[in-house]
Design brief:
Layout (H helix, E strand, L loop, with lengths): L8 E4 L7 E12 L7 E7 L16 E5 L19 E6 L5 H10 L5 E5 L10 H6 L4 E5 H11 L3 E6 L9 H29 L16 E2 L2 H20 L1 H28 L23 H20 L6 H19 E2 L3 H21 L10 H7 L13 E5 L13 E5 L1 H20 L4 H24 L6 H18 L3 H6 L11
Helix pairs in contact: 4-8, 4-11, 4-12, 5-6, 5-9, 5-10, 6-7, 6-8, 7-8, 8-11, 9-11, 9-13, 11-12, 11-13, 12-13
Length: 508
């Protein structure tokens, strides 16, 4: 799982170099003439050089001096008169951050903005350098520097500050409702449908078209193969993201179309119109003479996926389509994939638990940049040339109005795996409820446990201020709750093996 917040603090491990502490901040810029409204720009700073005030009102408003024609690596780069009570803006260059900020400080600067054409990296140094410097130093993107000149001209003032970010965003409520709702509906639908298919023989009036989709029973071997494929794909995406991201987008569009069709078809079949069939033909699929209404539904589902694929980067509204398609995909997967025993559920959840924890918490010690492979791939590498994001997540834009929303990714994310994996256990619990006539006690308990696990994930996110592997909290909550209910009801043996079928159709 990958959930992102607007402000973050990371410890960047660069092999054997000291840790670098970095934060996002803002530089508030306005014209010296006072004729235009001010504007905030994102900066990346290291508070070990000097702290920034949290309140803009307490930040010093100083003249920004454009020195981007130089890199400030030698005394010859310092203009006549120095930087008396100013904040110079200089290019990144090849010298160290310490050399730049030292030159700026001894020449009267009150701060330093280093303009970078490349990815922003925290301005690091060592302990003795930190103790020597007492002015703030931060990195500003080259595009923001150009926008400052275009918007305010050459005579501008700026104030650097680091506003506090709310611990949690209200969009977490939306993600919580979508995730728990999908797990509950998908688990209930999958369990009921599976029992109906196996034990209820309904007469169909329109032939094979109404036959339910086939389910896939997951075996231990399939679980092992699936996990190996997940690991391989995640590593490949980490190293070849720009090449594989379009493949994943294409797969998502196809799978989401099928999922949306599967979810809407039961409702469309209730309509009294469009029951007529297309004429006889020899075309693939069409030779089965599907009903016109089902054909129109297929065209609609494909169109929705195509619209999302074309406008997927429209941040204002495309996320709504992505979430709708993602929920439909998850519901389709939950009713198609079946775990026949609690033993299989336990194996799948525990293996993916280890997988999630490893790729979030362990991989930062293995990568050169100290980045988590899971978080980096889920949110999209910041240095990606395509700037595409993987669509296999629910995403909701942040609802708070913090200036730091300019800096970080503007969405909070929850991966499909954090819905599907526990959802398969919820579906199994509902099937078992029907088998032993238990008034859905397993289903309700497991669904509530999933909601509690998700809340714990959000709390951990707020406390640690970094992406969390949701399965770290969801797996123990759902597995232990299901186990405890079975133990309390003295049905653990049946629950473990999935035996004891006794259908009560009133519960379906």
């Amino acid at each position: 799982m990958a959930v992102q917040r607007a402000r973050f603090r990371v410890w960047l491990l660069l092999h054997f170099l000291p840790q670098v502490y970095c934060e996002y901040g803002m530089v508030h810029v306005l014209s010296e003439k006072g004729s235009s409204k001010g504007k905030d720009y994102c900066i990346l700073f290291n508070s070990q050089w000097a702290h920034l005030p949290h309140d803009l009102g307490k930040a010093s408003l100083l003249q920004l001096q454009d020195q981007t024609a130089s890199v400030l690596c030698s005394p010859s780069d310092v203009p006549d008169g120095g930087f008396n009570n100013q904040i110079p803006m200089v290019m990144r260059g090849n010298c160290t951050f310490y050399e730049k900020v030292r030159l700026a400080q001894i020449n009267g600067a009150r701060g330093l903005l280093i303009v970078s054409r490349e990815r922003l990296v925290p301005p690091g140094g060592n302990r003795s350098q930190y103790e020597e410097i007492d002015i703030p130093v931060a990195l500003l993107s080259y595009t923001d520097m150009l926008d400052i000149g275009k918007s305010f001209g050459s005579s501008v003032k700026g104030a650097m500050y680091a506003p506090n970010e709310p611990v949690l965003d209200y969009n977490m409520v939306i993600i919580f409702v979508m995730a728990v709702g999908t797990v509950a509906i998908g688990g209930y639908w999958a369990g009921s449908r599976d029992v109906k298919k196996r034990y209820m023989k309904h007469k169909r009036d329109d032939g094979a078209e109404k036959h339910d989709d086939e389910t896939v029973d997951v075996t231990p071997i399939m679980i092992c193969v699936f996990v190996v494929m997940c690991c391989s794909m995640l590593v490949l995406l980490y190293f070849f993201y720009d090449h594989l991201v379009y493949v994943i987008i294409g797969i998502f569009c196809l799978a989401a179309s099928i999922g949306l069709y599967s979810c809407l078809s039961p409702f469309v079949r209730r309509f009294p119109l469009g029951k007529c069939r297309i004429p006889d033909n020899n075309l693939p699929y069409f030779h089965k003479r599907p009903q016109v209404r089902m054909l129109l539904l297929a065209v609609f589902c494909i169109s929705v996926s195509v619209v999302w694929g074309i406008f997927r980067n429209e941040d204002q509204w495309a996320w709504v389509l992505q979430d709708a398609l993602g929920i439909a995909f998850c519901l389709y997967m939950l009713k198609t994939i079946r775990l026949p025993t609690f033993k299989g559920c336990t194996l799948l959840l525990l293996v993916l638990f280890v997988y999630d924890v490893f790729f979030v918490f362990i991989t930062p010690f293995l990568t050169k940049t100290g980045e988590s492979i899971m978080v980096e791939v889920a949110a999209g590498p910041s240095d990606s040339a395509t700037h595409e994001k993987l669509p296999m997540v629910l995403k909701v834009p942040r609802l708070n109005s913090s200036p730091l929303a300019l800096c970080d990714r503007p969405f909070s994310l929850l991966g499909f795996g954090d819905i599907l994996v526990p959802g398969l256990l919820v579906a199994y619990c509902h099937r078992f409820d029907i088998q032993v006539q238990s008034s859905r006690v397993y289903f309700v308990a497991c669904t509530i446990a999933y909601g509690i696990g998700l809340l714990v994930t959000f709390v951990a996110l707020a406390l640690m201020q970094m992406g969390q592997p949701a399965l770290l909290y969801l797996v123990p909550c759902t597995l232990l709750t299901s186990f405890a209910v079975a133990l309390w009801r003295k049905e653990l043996a049946m629950f473990w093996t999935g035996s004891g079928f006794a259908v009560n159709t009133s519960l379906i």
